[in-house]
Amino acid sequence: MHTKQKAIRQVKSEWRDVVLVCRKCSKKLDGGFGPDGKTSFVKALRRVLPSPKGKARKRPQMILEVGCFDVCPKGAVVALRADRPGGWLIIPKGTPIDEAARQLGLQPGTEPPEAGESAG
Question: Residue 67 belongs to what domain range?
Fold first, then answer.
């Protein structure tokens, strides 16, 4: 007996930017960002970005924790924009979150560095 297969559907999203952050790096740092240095990179980054209330897919930027990138820097987290897979950033613990957002091209009027360019 065959069951009717459901059709593939598309769901609308407001995302303009998607940032991928290594979950393993974040966990190893156990905070390290924000004014008190006790906030995870993902939470600190989400707090400085404009975010309407409601569902995550309605935000203009999405910050996603993903599996390990196998870079494993000491005292830092690896992050990259999904639209620039060749430009990974190693963001040291304690980096001001506004600077990290700027390097990722998430502040108005900024573009992330091209792959191979210095992020500093």
Answer: 17-103
